[in-house]
Amino acid sequence: MNFNFFDLFWIFLVISSLQPLWQRRQLEFRRIRALQEFEQRRKSRVILLIHRQESISLLGIPLSRYISIEDSEQVLRAIRLTPPDVPIDLILHTPGGLVLATEQIARALIRHPAKVTVFVPHYAMSGGTMLALAADEIVMDANAVLGPVDPQLGNMAAASILSVIDKKPIDKIDDETLMMADLAQKAINQVQRFVRTLLKDEIPSQKIAPENIEKIVDALTSGRITHDCPITVEEASSLGLPVTVSLPKSIYDLMELYPQPPERRPSVQYIPMPYRRYPTLPESTRKPRS
């Protein structure tokens, strides 16, 4: 059988079109295998909640992801399918998201009879921190961070809106600001009540010392710091949260299987191997010219 140039060209097009599909299938297979190995090692149900900034193909427009109703539906289904005596391991990498979706997931976690462990390899801010508060143990990388859970109304912190009411006479404040302040106070009360519920969880055992609960509620919900202010491992531990720093290597391996979509020019680049020390060069004894 003879092949001409056009036959080879069409074969090349078919292979090129099938290659991305094959790569996605291979990546999905590696993810499932890694999850199965982690579950077998931990004897647990593993749930991943990973949000990356993605871009729309062709146009390349960045699209930020967050905890959504669709996420809560999937996580609730995973929890529902987990036997009561099987622990849950939740791997979090998220900037936060919708309050409704976050509270649904958090309530399901504290109702699970077996131990719930949250792993934070990099960051779990806002709603992600609220999910971490629902866990019996928070396992973090030494450089990972959590964040405050104070409510936001639009692009304004609820605590900042209330501060206006305290600093200005009532006759100098317009009606819209007063209504916003009323909503802000309600939002803060609701969040504080829910966080307190998470911290008082006693299933399967009490995780927070009773004397630390109000201190944690005040630190995370009062708006004393900005909403994007990172809470380090040391700060979280000093508050009394059940934090440990012993993230398994398999968590990092899993994160490698959920990469940030590539851009035209990488913003970070390095040689992917352990750092090796090289012999130190002898220092020059020559004096610089004056």
UniProtKB/TrEMBL annotation:
Chain segments annotated as transmembrane: none
Domain of life of the organism encoding this protein: Bacteria
Cellular component per GO, a single term: membrane
SUPFAM superfamilies for the chain: ClpP/crotonase
InterPro entries (UniProt xref): ClpP/crotonase-like_dom_sf, Pept_S49_ser-pept_pro
Stated name of the protein: Serine protease
Species of origin: Hydrococcus rivularis NIES-593
Lineage: Bacteria, Bacillati, Cyanobacteriota, Cyanophyceae, Pleurocapsales
